[in-house]
Design goal:
1 helix, globular, OB fold (Dihydrolipoamide Acetyltransferase, E2P), 5-stranded mixed beta barrel, mainly beta
């Protein structure tokens, strides 16, 4: 029998700055709400926005990237999985919370953040090998420069 698939892909905006906590083991945990909006026709046939709120949690290095780069209103693309947790509250009632456990995110904002002059380029935070001393998610500034054009300056050598 085939296994199931638990995968979530969302594009939305943060409703508030991420809340950062640390587990006793020292692992960073980031929590925030993400709003996704789609257009729907109402009973009168007019278009209106319908917004859905999602509770998001990231762990480890991705949580640290959330702390360093995301803020209220940030637009992101994220991937993750749905998870429902349960616990007993102080009055003995069973409580449940369904949230999306993030695996990676990509910033879609065109704004510069924290003095970054290249704010129009999306940045990605995803699992991978730790970079020594760096907390920045992967981005185009970590890529090597493409080779320079070595074509001759004049038209004399062109075959056409």
């Amino acid at each position: 029998m085939a296994r199931g698939l638990n995968r979530v892909l969302l594009i939305g905006n943060l409703g508030a700055d991420p809340e950062i906590k640390f587990a006793p083991s020292g692992t960073a945990i980031a929590n925030f709400n993400l709003a996704t909006t789609e257009g729907k026709k109402n009973a009168n046939g007019e278009w209106e926005d319908a917004t859905e709120w999602h509770r998001i949690v990231f762990f480890g290095r991705q949580a640290e990237s959330c702390r360093d780069y995301l803020k209220k209103g940030s637009r992101i693309y994220m991937e993750g999985r749905i998870q429902t947790r349960s616990w007993e509250d102080q009055s003995g009632q069973r409580q449940y919370r369904t949230e999306i456990v993030g695996a990676s995110f990509l910033m879609l904002d065109g704004r510069a953040q924290d003095g970054d002059s290249e704010g129009a380029k999306p940045r990605e935070a995803s699992p991978g090998k730790p970079r020594s001393g760096s907390r920045q998610p992967s981005d185009s500034r970590n890529m090597p420069e493409p080779p320079k054009n070595n074509f001759p300056e004049g038209d004399d050598d062109l075959p056409f």
